[in-house]
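Work Package 3 (structural annotation) set out to generate three-dimensional models for the target panel prioritized at the project kickoff. During this period the team completed the workflow that converts sequence records into discrete structure tokens, so that structures can be stored uniformly alongside our sequence database. As a representative example, we reproduce one entry of 158 residues exactly as it appears in the project archive.
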Amino acid sequence: MARNYGVARSWVYTLLARYQAEGDAAFEPRSRRPKTSPSAISASTVELITGLRKEVAGQGLDAGPHTIAWHLEHRHKTTVSPTTVSRSLTRAGLVTPDPAKIICQRGGRNAPRSFPRLARDRPSRRNVGSWLPVMASMFASRISSGGIFSPRERSSAV
């Protein structure tokens, strides 16, 4: 039966065991999200991050993720990466997104959208302007005489 449907035999037995335990609900799509995230930061660390953000911003200082990560490491002996701090602040709603700083993918590089795109309209013709007039003048006489190759060159080229 597994071969007819193109699935592994172990998957058929898994579905059969689910069907016997749950009935028709066994065939409903299930979440693939992990049940636990062992490397996630604790709720107390998240509270500490939000508290530091409010404290440092209240003093009129830079309250960015790198500053908060530095305070966590030096004052609270907790090491958290600036990226994790940034994600926690975003989840807590303490970051106002600036459209000029939104990162987008362009040619494999990250660049803010406010940067101008440095690409030509027709990239396949980017260097034509520099060599086309030279080539045209070199072959003008040959093109007007019926082709690029002279009759002598044509017989040896073929």
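Residues 46 and 91 are 10 Å apart (CA to CA).
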